[in-house]
Amino acid sequence: MSTDSGRSGLSPALADARQENLRSAYERKVIEAARRTVRVTTYVLASSVAERRADQDLIEAHVRGRGWKLALSSFWDFGQAPPVTDRIGFGEASRYAAQGFAHGIVAIGPQAITMDDATYEELLHFLGSRGVFLAYLSGPTP
Asked: What's the predicted TM-score (pTM) here?
């Protein structure tokens, strides 16, 4: 159930908890299926080169802290966020991971992906069905 704004008709806390449970279920499933070290690519949505570099550094430190390996490629989009389906960098990150080069995509937070509940859940299912998970530094889902 979604509203005109894309937010779930559920209370925000319930919607966030349900989405986080779905996101973490895909993450666990993909990690359990990995027969080797978990490899991830990074995705940054930034308004400047300095912001991109700062976010990239934070994400890379988080990835190392989790014991995951960084893939050879990272992805980003600059400027105001168009819908996630229209972002070249995120599309490339998704294809890269789905082709088997990474088990997951790590971003600073869910707000770097989308604030639309329906789009977010659709994206989780789309990536999960291809053996890819989304992960974040911390914080609630959209």
From this structure: 0.83
Other CB atoms within 10 Å distance of the CB of residue 114 = 21
Spatial separation of the C-alpha atoms in residues 75 and 95, rounded to whole Å:
11
Report which DSSP code applies to 97: I
Residue 141, both tokens: 């889902």
> Are the C-beta atoms of 62 and 106 separated by less than 8 Å?
yes
Q: Which residues contact 16 (CB under 8 A, 6 or more apart)?
A: 140, 141, 142
Phi-psi region of 70 (alpha: psi -120 to 50; beta: other; left: phi over 0): beta
Q: What is the mean pLDDT of residues 46-51?
A: 93
41 HSE (CA, 13 A, CB side): 22
Q: Which percentage of the chain shows pLDDT scores above 70? A: 89
